Every structure is written in structure tokens, then in C-alpha cells.
Amino acid sequence: MAGDKIPSGRMIRAARALVGMEQLDLAREIGVDRRTVSRLEADTEIPVNPLKIATFRKMRDVLQERGVVFLYRSKFHGEGVALKD
């Protein structure tokens, strides 16, 4: 289910840019340090640490509330982000 999927760091960074949100704004919204957002956006590995997973979910949820749709990699297309119509 797409609601349970974790976006990649690249997707988070692209989503923030799409809605004009700075790392500091996102960090404050989810209650972490800006450096945490920076590190997670730079991650290339799929998170397995429960704390990282929870933080990625919080970032995803905040960005989705701002109208971002996360497009997860499939056999038909790569990953990406878009704004809701």
C-alpha cells in the first residue's frame, strides 16, 4: 500500500523543493534538528532503523498534507513527486 511506503531521501528533497519548504521548516514541523533532515535526504539506503523509518514517515506525512504525491518506483516508471491536482 502506497500509504505505508517510505519515500527516498531524494524524493523528500524534491518534495520540499516543490512546495518551497526549507529543511529547517520541515525539521521544526516534525520536531527534529535540521541536520537530521539533511542527513536523511542524503541517505541512499532504505531505512531499517525504526527511528529513521518513523522520521521518514513524519516527513512524508507533512509533505503530503501540503499536496505532495509521492510516486514510487514501479516497472512502469521511476520514483518522483508531484502536486495534487
Which structural traits does this protein have?
globular, mainly alpha, 85 residues, DNA binding, two-stranded antiparallel ribbon, 52% helix, 2 strands, 434 Repressor (Amino-terminal Domain)
Question: How does this model look, in words?
Answer:
This protein is mostly helical and 85 residues long. It has one domain (2-83): 434 Repressor (Amino-terminal Domain) (Orthogonal Bundle). It is built from 4 helices and 2 strands, in the order ααααββ. The chain has helices spanning 9-19, 23-30, 34-42, 50-65; strands spanning 68-71, 80-83. Strands 1-2 form a two-stranded antiparallel sheet. Helix 1 packs parallel to helix 4 (50-65) and helix 2 (23-30) packs across helix 3 (34-42). The longest helix is centred in the last third of the chain and has 16 residues, at 50-65.
Q: Helix and strand layout, with pairings?
A:
Blueprint lengths: L8 H11 L3 H8 L3 H9 L7 H16 L2 E4 L8 E4 L2
Antiparallel strand pairs: 1-2
Spatial ordering of strands, largest sheet: 1-2
Reading off the top of the CATH hierarchy, the class is best stated as Mainly Alpha
CATH-assigned fold name: 434 Repressor (Amino-terminal Domain)
**Order of H and E elements:** HHHHEE
Question: How does the helix and strand content classify structurally?
Answer: mainly alpha
CATH architecture: Orthogonal Bundle
Secondary structure: number of strands: 2
| CATH H-level homologous superfamily name | lambda repressor-like DNA-binding domains
How large a portion of the residues is in β-strands, by DSSP E? 5-15%
Helical percentage: 40-55%
Shape: globular
| Whole-angstrom Rg | 12 Å
How many discrete domains?
1
Q: Which stretches of 5+ consecutive residues score pLDDT under 50?
A: none
Organism: Bradyrhizobium daqingense
GO molecular function, one term: DNA binding
Pfam family, one: HTH_3
Protein name: Helix-turn-helix protein
